[in-house]
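Tokens help. One example:
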Amino acid sequence: MHVVVVESPAKAKTINKYLGSDYHVLASYGHVRDLPAKDGSVRPDEDFAMSWAVDAKAQKRINEIAKAVKGADALILATDPDREGEAISWHVMQALRDKKVLKDQRIERVVFNAITKQAVTEAMRNPRAIDTPLVDAYLARRALDYLVGFTLSPVLWRKLPGARSAGRVQSVALRLVCDREAEIERFVSQEYWTIVAKMLTAAGEPFDARLTGVDGKRLERLSIGTEAEATAIRAFLDDAAYRVKSVEAKPARRNPQPPFTTSTLQQEASRKLGFSSARTMQIAQRLYEGIDLGGDTVGLITYMRTDAVQMSQEGIQGIRREIESAFGKRYVPEKQRNYATKAKNAQEAHEAIRPTEVSRHPKDLRRLLDDDQARLYELIWKRAVASQMESAELERTTVEIEATGGGRKADLRATGQVIKFDGFLTLYQEGKDDEEDENGSRLPPIESGETPKKTAIETSQHFTEPPPRYTEATLIKKMEELGIGRPSTYASTMAVLRDRGYVEIDKRRLVPEDKGRLVTAFLESFFDRYVEFDFTASLEEKLDKISNGDLAWQDVLREFWKDFSTHVEGTKELRVSDVLEALNEILGDHIFPKRADGGDPRACPTCESGRLSLKLGKFGAFIGCSNYPECRFTRQLNQSNDEAEAEAEGPKVLGIDPESGLQVTVRTGRFGPYIQLGEAAEGEKPKRATIPRGWSAQTIDLEGALKLLSLPRDVGADPESGKMITAGIGRYGPFVHLEGTYANLENVEEVFSVGLNRAVTLIAEKREKRGKGRSAAAELKALGEHPTAGGPVSVKDGKYGPYVNHGKVNATLPKGSDPQALTMEEAVALLEAKAGAPKKATKSRSTTKAKAKTSTTAKKATTSTKTRAAKGAGKSAASKATD
């Protein structure tokens, strides 16, 4: 008997069918060991020795594997074909050695890039040993992330209250987002003009020519800066004579893009399908692990965590045959296309993402897949097939025209493009190009020397625009270009930035929250080296050299830790006042916007003699006056002084509700701005509606306010139950609701427009994930034993969404979080935050007695609490450590 260990039960079931009765395939359910969330799990003074722990759920799985291995001839470790998979195999082997069950059994490592019978059986014929350099690179990466999180996060808590965490990759990604926002804020728009001549050929066919030069001077984009300049040039062109100087037609070729890597798949799925990176990876994981195709579970795509752009010969030849069959020989290149990986730190995986069997056409699988799976599979299939197709052949024509008159001369240019042979474009075009007309502006026949007729001169005013905010796709692309992070961590990095409240997503764009900007400014001020792009990328390169066997992992850690620990030690004497003044300087343009009257932006608008500065309070940072408590002027970071003063004056009246006749006002409460209908009556609260993210309290009008007050909205009756489906906005965003099932909507606007069909589909999908009619919440993921308090920690799917549970404490997962990606460290942080939240006071007969008892023991409790807090500070730091 041979025991095979894979990562997921879905893979185990499928692979067992392929291998037969001589093999017993078991799932490890991912990692079986991790660093405990406490001080000392990584010990720099002991040459970076690590203490690994097996949680309760994992222990049960290890026991099952150990029991099977005792009577087996061989242990075959068949986890995923990347660094993380190599680490899981190593952990399983080490855990079994700790249990002393490995004696005479052969230990083999096999990797397969696709879950198909051919790929699996071929891998079994070619086993190897555990790749020690890959494991060393994993150990170095894990230790680095742990040490950075454990060391840097407590500094943030002490010096910048309200900050959640810092991480080796997370903080650099956040800096990119914040730098872009600062660039947008500093941007000064410039006016410029363009001039286009509407013309007719000698045969009377129309075309456009753009002005490119005047009086021998070549025009750049901003050369014509005023309407007066544009008007003067137009006057000259109106009376000029025109002659075609040259006509040049050049052939051009456009080559297909390589098949998908992890990052390019995430980018394209975002552009074309609107998927977040986390959603893309969830769906891809399912397609890789296998879909039931009429009783037979088959993996539809190759492994989806890869930087490689190469495909196997088997895959290429199958695709070339498919191209010839579907499109004809003309679309098959004479030689197969071979692509080279450009990434600086390419991940060790066998090949790019492609369909395991190209004959499985997307249209044939649509009825067997849900909508998102079908769309992503089609995207992967088309990209892989197109990558081996013939190039598109184009013809680009450029016509140079001369205008003369009144002693002046101007140059104009007309361009056009036609596709002579569509090649791969018949099947696939990359994201942004889909909005373009591949034929361009096709030019009519024009001969050199002819004199076209001018029919009109058009001048157009333009203004330069700031660089766009990052989307998840463009941020991932930038991180890849800089060599920051890994394909397997991009999705989790995006999730951490959202969950920590460091960024919000507005129309798919990443907008840094004030909390995120404060953290970035703090790190740039006092830990600048560790959020530098070059430093982070060079560290990634060293980790890659470890995986190649060129560097020892402890040497890399020693070099890093020596400087890092010294730097952290130097911040101990740093005063909070020094931190705030540094942040005032860095974020000055953002938190102290220019005044309309040109006065000092930091002058207090109330007392005039005070100076505005960042302050830290119980609920985070705010702006306050230096003359406090004499002057009590305060405002939020994202407010102007005028807005703060207007808020202090009282509610803003928007108008009268035509139905009730009550006044509609905008007010500000503890949790932000909201809409109120009428005033509070005795014993009754007025109707209120929170102003959602993306809507401004300053610009909302009566129509928008009434829409919010009208929620929840009836969408329609459910066809099955006859019960009403409603749409509304809740604590976790916009939703549709039916009989206890809440399904998220993409944005607030959809609350007011979602139709019955879409609502029914969303609710059905949510119920399919959760299961119908259960009495207890389903367990989505077992995280193991709580590292400090003991007892199981798990992720469950509740009535209002996923939450993490430990004993009697339930902590809701932040909006957008992937329950399967939640780590023990993150879970402990959520549980601690929940347990530490103030509880609502309740009246009972025992209240007086309880107060008296509390009073008599207060001193002892205070001393005990201080001791525990001192010990627990380091333990809590682990929950903030994240890549």
Summary: Residues 847-880 form the longest helix (34 residues).
